[in-house]
Specification:
single chain, about 270 residues, alpha+beta, N-terminal domain of MutM-like DNA repair proteins, Helicase, Ruva Protein, domain 3, 2 domains, 7 helices, about 20% strand, elongated, binds zinc ion
Length: about 270
């Protein structure tokens, strides 16, 4: 499943290629993905219009023109890939966004949990998909430590479940939450309001570091992401705990254990994560 770093890498690549270009045509090959696609409104926003900016909010990519924006969410299996107009359509291609230079972008999503939607100008903060999203951890204007500390004080849930709540902070998905807590030496099952205040400095720092490293890894493989099928596998080589059950902890040599939290797999070291 594409996570924030993959989406950020995608956004940077699409921004580089699309800003200043004009959409020549847009076509939808089915009426819906996760929801009905607002085809007529999206054509009005995009066709004949110049792309002014490409931004990200959480895991949503937003492609703006002066008339509004196209919102894209990749869901579980979605991809937004560049192709030449004459390239064969692969299975599960649901939308084509043609640009005026022989290139087009295609939205491909076998499982159809992805989203294609429209935003009116200025609607980014209030659109129903976006309005409840928590802070952007990599936004330099955000006091991540303060936000996490305040949101955690009256919650009695495990810290990993807390960090994955996108209404508090976006982008800390299952893999990254496990990695952050290993780096911060905190047991993922610890109830969040029992964590000492000083440890929130470390949690915030590790969220920023892990996501930044993953974006850096992804940023160098954007072409691969765009051109090939399947998962980009960003960051996979750098994982310290995720997917490493029964393997030795890279810090203390003890065995990594796998547990389940909120129906998701969690990995941690029993010895050095307290
Ligand atoms: Zn350890």
């Amino acid at each position: 499943m594409p996570e924030l770093p993959e989406v950020e890498s995608l956004v940077r690549g699409v921004r580089q290629e699309l800003v200043g270009k004009r959409f020549a045509d847009v076509s939808f090959l089915r009426p819906d993905v996760r929801e009905v696609i607002p085809a007529a409104r999206l054509k009005d926003i995009l066709v004949g219009e110049t792309v002014t900016e490409v931004t990200r909010r959480g895991k949503y990519m937003l492609i703006h023109t002066n008339k509004g924006a196209l919102g894209v969410h990749l869901g579980m299996s979605g991809r937004f890939v560049g192709a030449s107009k004459s390239a064969l359509l692969v299975a599960h291609t649901h939308a084509r966004f043609e640009v005026n230079d022989g290139l087009e972008y295609r939205f491909i999503d076998p499982r159809r949990f992805g989203r294609l939607f429209s935003l009116e100008p200025g609607e980014v903060g209030s659109h129903p998909f976006l309005a409840k999203l928590g802070v952007e951890p990599l936004d330099p204007g955000v006091d991540l430590r303060g936000v996490l500390l305040e949101a955690s004080r009256n919650r009695r849930q495990p810290v990993k479940v807390f960090l994955m709540n996108s209404e508090v902070v976006v982008g800390v998905g299952n893999i990254y939450a496990s990695e952050v807590l290993w780096r911060a030496k905190i047991n993922p099952h610890t109830v969040v309001n029992k964590i000492p205040v000083r440890k929130f400095i470390e949690i915030s720092r590790q969220i920023i570091d892990v996501l930044s490293e993953a974006i850096k890894a992804g940023g160098t493989t954007f072409r691969d992401y765009r051109d090939k099928d399947g998962n980009p596998g960003y960051f996979q080589e750098n994982l310290a705990v995720y997917g490493r059950q029964a393997k030795p902890c890279g810090r203390c040599g003890s065995k990594i254990v796998k547990t389940t939290q909120a129906a998701r797999s969690t990995y941690h070291c029993l010895v050095c994560q307290k």
